[in-house]
DUF1902 domain-containing protein
Amino acid sequence: MTTDQNLILYTKFAGFRLVVLANRFGCDSDFSRELHDRLVEGLDAAIDRISVIMELERSVLIGEDEFAEYQLEGEIEIFGRFTINLLDELEIDYDTHEFRVNGGDWMSAWAADDTGVDINYPELVALIADELGSLAPIIKDITLATRIPVYAGRVVWSWW
């Protein structure tokens, strides 16, 4: 990405941040306010990441730091995988048959009873538009305008 593209992306994130903050005033539940707050946090993180990239680009251009180019490559690679999670995050390690929710402790997916042993992983189920409320179109616009995915999913255990 060029400096101009990064500046445009920075501006888009900042604009969406203002939209989300303004939209938060219409929230009628704690859950909705929490989703708005988490989206603002995610947009702040994206703004911070773009700011770091722009600062590293400046360092590369003026030759100020001999390692800035390597750092810039790493930051761009990290930003390429950037996502915003509004609710739950599920990690599954299929090799060890373990999972964890929201960065917590790893838990075994093995389940045993008198009928035998099963491996049961929880699922990540996307929130529906009604649950997202007025955030649904904003999330869609953020993803379309910035290509940064915004995930809003809830972990569901079908076996508990």
Notes: The longest strand covers residues 90-93. The chain has a mean pLDDT of 90. The chain has one domain: 3-156. Residues 93 and 99 are 6 Å apart (CA to CA).
